[in-house]
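Table S2 (continued). Query chain:
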Amino acid sequence: MDLGIQGKWALVGGASKGLGLGCAKALAQAGVNLVMVSRGDEALQASAQLLRAHGVTVLTVAQDITTVAGREAIFSVHGGPGKDFDIVITNAGGPPTGDFREWGRDEWIKAVDANMLTPIELIKATVDGMAARGFGRIVNITSSAVKAPIDILGLSNGARSGLTGFVAGAARNSNIASRNVTINNLLPGAFETDRLRVTFEGLAKKTGQAMDSLVEGRKKLAPALRFGHPDEFGHTCAFLCSQHAGFITGQNILIDGGAYPGTF
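Corresponding output:
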């Protein structure tokens, strides 16, 4: 399927690996030029070089997207599109796991800043330009924990739920939605990423169980009996960014292999 977005520009956060890279890869395959952002420069450069093989322009910014300085660097990339992004994929590493009793104000502020306020700042910086040009796609990578909270992910549960509430209102603003600009959230379940590995390490330390046992037990929670692959997540993201998805906005799309047991 031709997604109809060849030649457009996309900003992708956390793009050097995992779900962010999956999204960047699928967009590159659709002919989208990229500004890839990640804190680790070595992995970022390696991933960017691979995506250039698709014949698109790929710029890199080795910065922390959750900081003001990092976002300023992104919007001032030499030779880049400045704030004229057609597509924005917000994605930042999730906060640490743990017991909510152990978290103080500093931990909560850091989580909210990274996983709620940073996406909001990126939306603010880009959405009006999208509306003026008559096309825009914003996809926030959040978590299945927004729909089915996980006890050890309390920081993530809270911060990402706040973002979900904000998007529910912003996406339905008539000055945005009527101008072919959509804002949606993608809620990943268990995918083969470093984040999942770190979560299992935390569980193993907390419970004393073997990693292999925890991994196999987690796979069985989804009817698919496996973890997702970042590439299939990326293709879903790319469709939401396509010309064909203009009537989908303000939605929370769960990608979890059927693990969530509810009807709604």
